[in-house]
Task: inverse folding
């Protein structure tokens, strides 16, 4: 179950545009019948069949298998009952979806299909969905999200101690040899660039003899100082570093060794090595994220500049930029009402979670150098372009923040399931057999 049912607008568009019916039955037709009552509010068979059709189309698009008809009907009906019960709780708490929020969601969905709002509504009507019905569906999803934010997510907390405990557990379970930190020392018996068979045999014999002397009790460090053809400083130590920064043959040769032990002879292009494990530590966790370098043009909505006007203005501006009659940078300096305007709209490098969801989700859908269709966020109307993307390792502080978010999401999901069961148990539900 996803808490943010309206968080991913593209998914919501697929679900809603696939042919979903009215959010609530306004009039039960004579040929229809009630399949369930939720605190005396009916769910009709027509509504249920529309939802089943929606799930089938969604599964087909995602190439997912379907359960049996009976299990599908039961599961969809249970979902509708839960949603209906939660919407009733939301109404009792006075939660509503304001027209501006519905307008914003509708405009974003229209923009994703590269249509203006009026064209989008006509496309819906061709599928038998009126704009009133569609906006009611949007409103319901907004209300459900606000209710769950208020009753579940806002109450979830993760302490610093829990984060540290989880980090320690992850580190202890980190058995990847390349993620460990090791300090290796080596003694090299060198070979020329193109050695003869006799030179190889001679060097190998010398390395084997030195290994036998070490195993007989001689000091590895002393032999390095006397015999190594590599650096003799500090007993031949290379230094403490992540194992993936060592040659793989060194890691493989020492993987099963304890600290203080010396490997068998190891052949490389340089010659024959004897490798000693000086130190081995549990590796620090490394996590990479994809950062995005983007720029945008922001038009703030006012009584004088409506949402429709702003989107239309940015659509024309996008065409001019694509055709080359004006650069994105110049347009941003001239028109953008954001603090980034003087930098040509440049937002710099951003990590996941830095922007509001509706902006970030639209940004994530763009390819590098692509200029997206205008979208609406809580700040206004945006025209955006992705300049670059890169993968970077998180710093220790960023890693802790990511782990905190992961723990919080897991705890929120558990809390949501408990809360949903509680709402369901307190509702009076009567399920009626099909006629």
Result:
């Amino acid at each position: 179950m996803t808490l943010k049912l309206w968080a991913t607008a593209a998914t919501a568009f697929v679900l809603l545009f696939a042919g979903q019916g009215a959010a609530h039955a306004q009039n039960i037709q004579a040929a229809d019948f009630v399949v369930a009552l939720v605190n005396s509010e009916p769910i009709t068979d027509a509504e249920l069949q529309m939802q089943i059709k929606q799930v089938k189309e969604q599964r087909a698009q995602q190439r997912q298998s379907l359960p049996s008809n009976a299990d599908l009907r039961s599961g969809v009906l249970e979902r509708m009952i839960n949603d209906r019960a939660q919407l009733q709780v939301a109404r009792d708490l006075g939660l509503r979806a304001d027209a501006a929020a519905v307008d914003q969601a509708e405009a974003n969905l229209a923009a994703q299909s590269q249509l203006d709002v009026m064209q989008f509504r006509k496309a819906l009507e061709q599928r038998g969905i009126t704009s009133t019905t569609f906006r009611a569906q949007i409103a319901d999803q907004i209300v459900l999200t606000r209710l769950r934010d208020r009753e579940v997510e806002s109450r979830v907390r993760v302490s610093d101690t829990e984060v540290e405990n989880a980090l320690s557990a992850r580190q202890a379970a980190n058995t990847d040899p390349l993620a460990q930190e090791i300090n290796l020392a080596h003694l090299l018996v060198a070979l020329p660039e193109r050695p003869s068979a006799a030179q190889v045999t001679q060097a190998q014999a010398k390395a084997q003899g030195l290994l036998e002397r070490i195993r007989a009790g001689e000091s590895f460090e002393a032999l390095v100082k006397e015999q190594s053809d590599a650096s003799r400083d500090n007993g031949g130590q290379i230094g403490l570093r992540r194992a993936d920064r060592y040659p793989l043959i060194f890691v493989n040769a020492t993987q099963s060794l304890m600290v203080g032990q010396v490997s068998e002879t190891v052949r490389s292009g340089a010659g024959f090595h004897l490798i000693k494990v000086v130190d081995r530590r549990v590796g620090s966790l490394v996590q990479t994220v994809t950062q995005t370098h983007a720029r945008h043009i922001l038009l703030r909505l006012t009584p004088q500049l409506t949402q429709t006007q702003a989107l239309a203005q940015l659509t024309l501006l996008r065409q001019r930029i694509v055709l080359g009659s004006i650069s994105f940078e110049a347009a941003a300096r001239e028109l953008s009402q954001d603090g980034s305007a003087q930098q040509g709209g440049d937002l710099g490098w951003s990590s996941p979670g830095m922007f509001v969801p509706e902006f970030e989700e639209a940004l994530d859908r763009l390819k590098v150098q692509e200029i997206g269709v205008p979208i609406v966020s809580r700040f206004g109307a945006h025209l955006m372009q992705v300049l670059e993307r890169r993968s970077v390792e998180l710093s220790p502080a960023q890693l802790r923040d990511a782990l905190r978010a992961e723990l919080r999401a897991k705890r929120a999901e558990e809390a949501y399931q408990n809360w949903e069961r509680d709402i369901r148990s307190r509702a009076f539900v009567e399920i009626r057999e099909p006629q």
